[in-house]
Structures are given as C-alpha cells and as structure tokens.
Amino acid sequence: xxxxVFVIFAILSFGFATADELTLKPGxxxxxxxxxxxxxxxxxxxxxxxxxxxxxxxxxxPQIANPHLIYPGDRLxxxxxxxxxxxxxxxxxxxxxxxxxxxxxxxIPVVDLALIKPYLVQNRVxxxxxxxxxxxxxxxxxxxxxxxxDEVIYIKGRLDKHKKYGVYVPGRIFYSNDGELLGQEVILTxxxxxxxxxxxxxxxxxxxxxxxKAGYRIIEIEDDSLLxxxxxxxxxxxxxxxxxxxxxxxxxxxxKLNVVYLDKGEEHGVELGHVFSIYRNGDQVVINGDGVPxxxxxxxxxxxxxAAIFDEHSIQVPDTYRGQLMVFKVFDKxxxxxxxxxxxxxxxxxxxxxxxxxxxLRGE
Length: 364
Fold this sequence. Notes:
With 364 residues, the chain is an alpha+beta fold. 16% of the residues lie in helices and 33% in strands.
C-alpha cells in the first residue's frame, strides 16, 4: 500500500509541477498601501489564493525586482500585462519639515521574524553521539546551581580564546516512521565568549535565555544561525511525502504561525523558503460483519481481523487538507517550518507534499 501511495504521489507531482498560473482571490483590491507590521506574505494574501506565489506576481516587474525595497507607505497597484496579473510599485517619499528626504526605516520582511527568531537562534538538530562528545559545562564562579548573563562558567576542555560558544541542553530525539535516527534537538540556553583557555576553560556569559547548569554541552556559534529577513518562497520538490516530526512546545495540535519539525532536510532537497501543503492521511474504514462501516477508533479486534484478511472489508477514505507551511531553517535530515495557513489543526505524522499537488486535489 505504501509503495502505491508513493507511486501516486510521484505521478501527481510530475503532472502538476509545471503548473505556474496565478489565481487571484475573489474580491481582491486594485491598490494597497503598505502598512507598518505588514509582511510580503500578508500583502500577497490580499491578492492571491496561494500567497507564496508572490515572486511571480512581482518578479517580472523591473520596478519590484527587489521586493526587499517595499516600505510602509508605498502604494501597490494591480495591473495586467499580457493577461497576467502584476503589481506595480510606487514608493512613498517621506520629507522632514525642512524638505529633506528622511529614512523610511526597515523594509517589510517575508514573514514576522519575531515568530521564528527563538528557533533561528536557539534550536538545532544534531547527531546525538556527536553532541555527547562536545565540551561539558562543569560549573561556575557563582555558587548558584544555575548560571545567568555576566557570570563566568567553567568548561571541560581547552578552547580558543575570544571564540563565541553556545550552551545547549538536550531535547527530543527524532526518528523517522521507518525507525531511522534523524537527530537530537538541542536548545540554546546561553551564549558567551572564551576569556581564559586551559584544561578547564572559562567563558563569560553574554546572554541567557533559559536556566543553564552543569552537565550541559557547548557548541561554537555558527555565523549562519540567523535567517536573512528576505528570501524567496518557492514550491518544494519532494520525491516522496514528508511528515510532521514534532510540534512547537511538543503539544498535540498546532495551527497558524506555529512552528513544526519535518522529517526531511538538506539530504532530501529541502531548502530555505520551500513551501509545502499539509495533509492528514484518510482513515481506514472497515465494513463489519453486519455491513456497517466502522472507523478506526471504534474498531474491535474482529474488525481488525476482517481488515487484515479481506481487502473488500477495508476502505481507505480520502486524505484531508490541513494547510500550508514554509521552511525557514534546514538541517541534514530535518527542517523547521512555520505554518502559514491552517484550515484544520496540524498534528505529528501529518503528511507534507508539494503544494501544486494539493492545489489541484483541492479542486481550486
């Protein structure tokens, strides 16, 4: 059955991957004035059914070759060029009372970075054996069990002076549905700089987010740990479905603007900005001995026996659409994504597919 699902998935992906038409949302505005707090995704949602397609809506217009340059106060006007909808950009000019042009502040980002900043800075997925070999926090100059900003901590091992390190606490260990080890979640509790190297090195903590104590491990801070404010969303190109691996806060259900882990990463072609659709596998309904359909949650052991032995007693109902998400951080075998649209709650093991596939299956 799983092989059949993958074959169907591949056929659908191939058949719809070339679809690139834009579908305007009914009742869309003709013009829009950019407001403080807007994001590129928010603005596109006023015009498009699939907001992640905004690069096509703006990309061929030389005036908006760089959507980074969209600022609060700018006017966007919808026009049609060769029958295709496009946005024309008219920048606003702010002047001081003296008539001088004043800066407009920061350009609007793709998404609200405040929603994902903690995960950009604090969360990583690494090999658990590798993590266990990293230098260990032994304690600190303070007699307190926990250590915070401006304190000095002791690290087992010789470190390079002036280098910046993060202190990490181990979190969840992730496995694929097939039992493959995908990595261990590690969460940043504090960061600091080496002030004195030696067999036991000293680090002065420059920032702290959580309780930091003996036994935690340290990892050198990476330059690419922060996401640029501007990047292009694009359709993901999975060869087979991915699945939701974990949820924000490890809760049962999450929704719009919540963060989830996916069980696919750089090794599977997942990239920053990839957009995917979320699907829940359809239930397997069993026709019992009385000819009555029984959902999986209500099946008896006899119903399970009928489903296992007789194919005609088991019927797979269609999958249900849950929403869309966008990847904002990628690891070797996993990735982090932000849910951008939710028609229904999202759970662990929900299926992730290329957006064109669901766009068609939803009949839109």
